[in-house]
């Protein structure tokens, strides 16, 4: 009986705190019209209308009624959803001084301690310093010579797929992670059980799962609910996220330091920065800043590029005529005496168009990482208050029929000269997929390079076809994307075979374990 009374008192205290929180948020706000949006309820606003998954689809539906700018509230927290590319450019690019910060999200920032990641750091000096290091090493392939490593690891992937095509998903997942670990920490991945790779995979899942606990931001007092309170499980999830964030942030860099000390370290981003930033007295300038930037690159390189390559393979399964055209172009330019090189890129416009269409067709981040306004703003006669969480609906943009006729179809021809009739200057998927303004992804060049070399090498080496069941009927490809903020898709049952014995021999000769 006593525990029940305590639970009731706790619930009442939380409810009172929520009402107070909403009152304080609204107090003093200017009485100016907000952008249109679905009507909410007293106190809680639109909280019950926000789905736990696929918010981008709900927002697109709202857009049919309210337009490309949608304003909602969740217990006093203002949220602005942008459904069109043009509006995102107008606000987030052209007014980047207002729209470049990040909201402070309770689960990843406070409870799991991921707030050090460049992608979560608020706009300011620390963000500028971290982005400086990332831009320096990833915008120019020459600094890290990451092109050579990307090519070598791609060839390793080809050999693994040649030997074990049914498990191609495992080797695709390994590719970006093995490259980024060598780029950032000089760490060579020698097995599928590599501890750093496993921590990266677990961390990507943990980051995705954290998005299921946004209610802690709408109702911040709920974070103080005790473990025994009915339905409470975020404490356990947060503890695992905290363990991963500490391991992810510290273990690779400590290994690098140890190798530097004993003289076994390979040249990479972190070794260069340690050497450059070590003072005469042995102290290291901005050590935590560049280490955090490096760990962010490690996490980013271990996630989105995997989905891009898996999406490419899915697209080839579903569109054999596209696969055939791309292979014909590669045969004409590259021939069959070698594998594609980065130097072939300009002579392979159709393959480049395939890569561009991959980024549009199944957008990897349907909602771009949220931005936050740092001051009040006014747009189209509407007031956008300071502290508004700004969500950019990339999914809706890539399905805009005005820019992309037949948006659900995979059509690389869109990106060839004269490919889209009647459409003037459609937004390129790269401009949507890699972010906006002062938060654009520093690893864009790295990601575009690895997608190109992986796609062109797979096309040159293999035919990808649907598998057939015992009844002789083709097995449908797996296009069941996880509905997370960073989507992922598993492998399909398919038939991957070398295009010739000559190419199989070439793959075996290229890689010597």
From TrEMBL:
Heme binds at residue 441. Gene3D superfamilies: Cytochrome P450. Pathway: Secondary metabolite biosynthesis. Its cofactor is heme. InterPro entries: Cyt_P450 (IPR001128), Cyt_P450_CS (IPR017972), Cyt_P450_E_grp-I (IPR002401), Cyt_P450_sf (IPR036396), Cytochrome_P450_fung (IPR050364). It is found in: Membrane. Keywords: Heme, Iron, Membrane, Metal-binding, Monooxygenase, Oxidoreductase, Transmembrane, Transmembrane helix. GO terms for cellular component: membrane. Belongs to the cytochrome P450 family. This is CyP450 monooxygenase. It comes from Schizopora paradoxa.
